[in-house]
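During data preparation, a discrete fold description was generated, and the record follows.
___
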Amino acid sequence: MQADARQAVMSSGHWLGVAEVATLSPCTRAKASARTIQWERQGRILAIETEQGHLFPDYGFDPDNGYRPRDLPPSAVPFITRKSGVSRLIDLDGG
């Protein structure tokens, strides 16, 4: 069930790695890595842990603001935790 949920989440949108965030935003890969870690810890972006590293949904970034995180609605903040996004989605589904 977890593998099916992970596949459904991964195929439901476009996911960015740190290298892609660095390419889209005006910063180096090292700076993009530090920024995404900081934003994730602050609960400003959702990240999913994969074998390739953390992936971030592209809808979480604002292209009009240098690909910084979009402001999340207050109702979304409790669902962004240190736990992987896929695991959180599975928990919400009762799995």
Notes: Strands lie at 15-16, 48-50, 53-57, 61-62, 68-69. The helical segments are 2-10, 18-24, 29-41, 85-92. The longest helix spans residues 29-41.
